[in-house]
Amino acid sequence: MWGILNTGILLAGIAGATSNSNNTVNNSKLQTWWHDSGEITISPVQPDSVRQSHLYSVQVSNSVDQTYYDSFTYQTIPRNGQGNILIPNDLTSTTTAGDGITIEAAIGMTMSWTSFLYSADVWVKVHRLDGFSIESDTFVIRPTNLNLTTSVAGGDLFIQVPYSERGSKFSVEFNDNLYDFRDGCSNPTCSYVQDTSASGPYYVDEYDDSMPLMGVEPLDSLLIFASPFEDESLIPDETSDDALVVPEGRISGLNTTEARIVIFKPGVYYATATDYLNLSSTVDWLYFAPGSYVKGAVEFHTTSALIQATGHGVLSGEQYVYQADPTYGFQNHNVDASPLRMWKGTVPNGQKTTWVVNGPTVNSPPFNSMDFYGDTSAFSVACTDYKQVGGYFGQTDGMQAYPGSVFQDIFYHTNDDTIKIYHSDVTVSNVVVQKGSTAPIIQFGWAARNISNIRVSDINIIHSRWNSNGSNPGIIGSNNLYDPSTASTSATNTSTADTYSSASNIVFSNIRSEGISGPLMRIYALENLHNITISNVWVEEFGSCDGYENIGISESFMPAMTDGNGDNITVEGFIIEDFMVGDKKVTLDTASTVGNLYWNPDFDVTIQ
Question: Which residue positions does the secretion signal occupy (predicted)?
């Protein structure tokens, strides 16, 4: 940590500094990178270009020599400038069919991010390209409990980021750049409305009291990802006989290569909107070097017991249409099984397989983020320092935690289930979440399960918003039975449980939800619940949308559930402890009035 004197010297020396392109650094303390092909546009960028932030530039310094180095500031936008299209590269093939994006494109929403590697404390300098002069009372950093040291000078913001072996992931937000998401009616059945674009969807001339506030987010998000340097064991030797260094530009030949390791060095690579990284069976390691930007999606075909995806580059789905389906000419296809995942693979029967993921940033997934098939009972994921941005499309979820998986130090921007705990012996910790309107943040429903020994902790929700009960709101959720034949659930059907299955010994702890929040939980118990603990949760405030069937969006519930024969599931040892809403602790007496908590009275639920 730097002392006050050194801090003052540094800030005084760089107050007048300007951003010079490609002034980067790569030493033992700090590594930043740049792309000369950056484009500032709201249209699709060229295949060999990268979308660059129109509003922010970022520089980083790790010493008192008054040198600030450029850190390329990427940007992602809803639909990637293509519009709501069905056919790849055909901007005229528009549709009004839903893709999970409501008003985000119409209001001009964007998300910028920058990444760098560090091994010592750094200062991050944020400059507004629109001429806005940053003052000490014009910004906030989320999660707010990071309590980072900040200063302003010359109209720029300086943020001290102490070194941590777990890195740091945070949002920088400005008061003049916040957007109020309002619902179209005062009961939880409507979509958002907007008064920005008269030609856009859900336009209203002006807001009124019947349009409640459901969330406040930056119109132009800025995310900072500070990562520790990569462990040498996670960096392949590019001179190895079994390594392929991919040439920049159009990606080809990965389906026929005999290499085991595929390396993307700094640069821009693309598979096009009608292709993807369909890897040969010999490939079990993808390395995305810092400064690499790979447009495509990945499918492994290896039978190796160890699969790896490492490095601090970017894997971007920006060229694809929503639900792009390789079996359907990469056109939009509204089915579950065959559209692209950003990560996909098949696990051999009877083989214990581990997938190690460290460092990548995934941008703009066109559908579900990750699914593996085959014998997943013996498949686990070890995922660290993973980031997902641009999760605007519907069904852009988080990665699935297969049995024995460990996820830690994650940033998720999602528009579907975020932390998916469908299997036993799973640990998830230190996750920052910015959440769209679909599905809960933590999900263990959709089907009856036999799961146990799950720990989810240290979850910081910096933004969340739900516009209707139909979007399955909630911090913790177990959604009702999913019917693949209709791609839907029946939320009112309470006879879908399996009384022979159970979820047990699950702990959700240290969860913070900033701003307006959805309910603590909505649990359709599709199996017996035993020894479930929800501990140390803070919700800043609940929204006000209510009135429909007397169930508002902020209300938690856990109704009675039966199987098809009418036999009841049991809930035993369900504990909610140290649950705070604002500065009020929820007790048994205030469970409904402060905590908005409702459950079947036959369940064994304790509030303490």
Answer: 1-19
